[in-house]
Sequence to fold (214 residues):
Amino acid sequence: MYATVGDRIIIKGHHLGEPDRDCEVIEVQGEDGTPPYRVRWDDSGHECLFFPGSDASVQNFDHARS
Amino acid sequence: MRAIDAVRRSGIGVGPDRTIRDAALLMEEAGVGSLAIIEGDRLVGIVTDRDLVRRGLARGLPADARVDGVMSAPVVTISADADLHDAFGIFRTHALRRLAVVRGEQFVGTITIDDLLIDLTADLADLARPIAAEVLFSHRDSGPLVTT
Fold:
């Protein structure tokens, strides 16, 4: 996975009816956009390190606008 | 198959000085049942929702107590590039439901027994499908009965 600051990470729900979750990348700690990422959760504003699994995908806003 | 290939769920990491309230909120917000406790680049512990209840709530710890006070340490780990069968061996010999996956001392994810069981069930269903079809529909392959 590759991400840049400002990207949004979408985590798919694991159970039937569980909503997808998302957070914003505020720091990339790996080399060349690789994990781990420091992220911020919208609802609480809490920050943590994020280690993506196969349930996560990156929504890159620059690419989305073009 | 490597251990890292079996990591299905994203991992969440926090510093050891975060509060147990923060830990609980992050578990809720991220939809996870455990957090990696990371100091610098190093994995120093794992805290689960069960730890928060048994070592936090049950002992009357305040919500602003440090999360490293309720974490499990040292952590049983498996190398990201290890064969997945090594993980089965660890689950067989340790009372664990989650296994931290590392590269060196750096946490990269978690393998859970639940996810392994779901994968195995899917594999078994794939293997059973042709056998079930043969058992259920074998008469279609038979030729007509011939009487003399």
